[in-house]
Amino acid sequence: xxxxxxxxxxxxxxxxxxxxxxxxxxxxxxxxxxxxxxxxxxxxxxxxxxxxxxxxxxxxxxxxxxxxxxxxxxxxxxxxxxxxxxxxxxxx
Length: 92
What we know:
Blueprint: H1 3-85
């Protein structure tokens, strides 16, 4: 057996090791992809539920509070207007 035969044997062995390593990495990547896909679907569902909760809170809590605040502010401005009308003018 000459040196060329050993060189070819080493090339074949390294080729097999590289092929097995590539198959192993592809399997690991596929398993990771499946887990990540399931995690992303779960996150999308949670975001959808959170969005529904925010919309409900906005419609049922924040809107009435803003309307009540606007009403109170209007009453305060009306009282200030009438109190300024009947206030004695100072400095004349």
